[in-house]
Model the fold of this input.
Amino acid sequence: MKHTATIWLAALLMTLAVPGRAQDKAVIEELNARFVAAFNSGDFAKVASLYAENAYVLPPGSGVIKGRSNIQAFWTKAGEGLGDVKLVTVEVTPLSGSAAREIGTFTGRTKGASPQDVGGKYVVIWQKEADQWRITTDIWNSTK
Done:
């Protein structure tokens, strides 16, 4: 009887955890929508505001970028050559009550005389700070 109660308790706790995961994914998808809207409109201060003050960005073929102001400068420069960015959240995995890992894909289009489609995959670590999710680590690479 005691073993059965333990199994039921574990099943109940797992059931209660699922809506939290779905909710976190929905929240992160909304934050990604804000990122995309801000990036595509050229509001790189708003893009940077989605990052924690001491966040890291690890772009391919480049050094580590640390801190919100440096991240804003990075995205401002990136926005000169890239537009029509889209993000698709594939999975959000809670790491704790205040952290989550997101895996996703991105697409965009280069600017200039001969625009090209670009795309890839990313991993983002989100941290909840004062009830607000912020990016603490952002790394990606191309699929080409």
About this structure: The chain has one domain: 2-142. The radius of gyration is 18 Å. Strands lie at 51-58, 65-66, 82-96, 99-110, 117-129, 132-142. The chain has three helices and six strands.
